[in-house]
Amino acid sequence: MKSIIIELQQLASDDSCTITTLLRKSLIVASKLNLNDFKKWINNELNGYDNIDEIPQYREVTGDLKAWNPYNGIWIPIIWKEMPEGLTKCKIGQSVGEMEDLLKNRKDKSILTISFTPEQTAILLRVINTPTPPTRIISSSQFAGILDIVRNIVLEWSLKLESDGVLGKDLTFTEKEKQKISSTTYNIQNFVGVLGEVKSEKIQIGDYNSIHSELKKCGVSQSERNELEDILDNLKNTKKDTEKKTLVKKGVGWLKRNASTIGALSGIIRSWITNS
């Protein structure tokens, strides 16, 4: 009989498995083990956050304030001497399913737009002279980073369950396993840790130097850091499709080895590799 916890680890390690599918399987585990903290978190990620105060820090994104110019078809940066932080930063409360659809179906593969509420837009239009309502422009890698953090949390959680002797058979757990759970605290914050602390505004797209210190902080070895730097440098310089495919495959392999260690950075790096 299969262990549902091992299956969960396999799904979390498989990039082809959607986060929505992964969380539905996780919800079964959390419900059967009465892990209410995780159950609430999973439901919020699956259905979206109704309460803005409950949105985790790893769901905060930073963008640029711009307005669309319909005359020449480009986004115009809005210059504000002392830009209020609330205009460029916001927390994403959408469900993981909506986020996955946005990343899959967006026209521009590198950016996403986040509009203001009608009330906020009305106030902005009174103080900013723009041809169209201002909006936030964020890199799509930030959305991908959020989804990767969710994937990594599930992976870390399932590994912890295994280390505590909780494996399950098919969709059931023994009384002994449930007793082990009752004597252990599984707080979602313990698994978020540093996964949501990457300051995306400091990250320069495709620039290894901008993430070097973060990788070092996460505990990525020197040899692994050197390999990633070589992959990114070669991707920028090569023009041959065959070489690029080989490098992308190598980069994906690097991510699989290091995803659980680097947290939010994995989504950013994946975006660089796959969109190069």
Explain this structure to me?
- 55% of the residues lie in helices and 9% in strands.
- The chain is an alpha+beta fold.
- The chain folds into 2 domains: 1-197, no CATH class; 198-276, no CATH class.
- Strands 3-2-6-5 form a 4-stranded antiparallel β-sheet. It has a two-stranded antiparallel sheet with strand order 1-4.
- A hairpin with a 4-residue loop joins β2 (64-69) and β3.
- α1 (4-12) runs antiparallel to α7, α2 packs antiparallel against α3 and α12 runs antiparallel to α13.
- The radius of gyration is 21 Å and the shape is globular.
End-to-end separation in angstroms reads 43 Å
Going by helix content, strand content and strand pairing, the class is alpha+beta
| Oligomerization status of the protein chains | single chain
Low-confidence stretches: 194-203
Portion of residues in beta strands equals 5-15%
Total separate domains: 2
Helix content: 40-55%
Order of helices and strands: HHHEEEHEHEHEHHHHHHH
Mean of pLDDT:
81
Going across the major beta sheet, what is the strand order?
3-2-6-5
**Basic shape:** globular
State the helix count: 13
Largest sheet: 4 strands, antiparallel
Count of beta strands = 6
CA gyration radius, whole angstroms: 21 Å
